[in-house]
Amino acid sequence: MFIEMGFKLGFGGAMTYDRATKLRALATELPLSALVLETDAPDIPPHWLYTTAQDREKGQAQGRNSPAELPRIASVLADLRRISLAELAAATSANARQALPRLQSPL
User: What is the pTM of this model?
Assistant: First the structure.
């Protein structure tokens, strides 16, 4: 399995939709050590930025995802896993540094 090989799986905007049941199940069932956060920016806006096709036809712009949404995406994941946001942030930050070692050193 890829997780056993040290791969990490990123969770972002798509996970914030209630109807994303399989993705949300993965987000809760996988080991915390296998998770990282991502924004999917600028695509795949979280549910709070989504604009329906009908609203877009009326001229309402689609919400644009950005890294600024990451704290709220993290909050959704923490809620799904029933852990504190601080615990999730510490774990996913450590996981990202493990997957991308250059994150550990200043630029």
Answer: 0.86
**Residue 88, pLDDT score:** 98
* Beta-carbon count within 10 A of 92 CB: 23
**Is 107 among the domain residues?**
no
Q: Is residue 43 part of a domain?
A: yes
- What is the per-residue pLDDT for 14? 94
Write the CATH number for 58. Answer: 3.20.20.140
Contacts of 89 (CB under 8 A, 6+ apart): 74
Q: Which residue reads 């399989």 in tokens?
A: 22
| Total residues found in the chain within this entry | 107
In order of 2, 28, 55, 67, 75, the CA distances from 10 in angstroms are 13, 13, 29, 14, 15
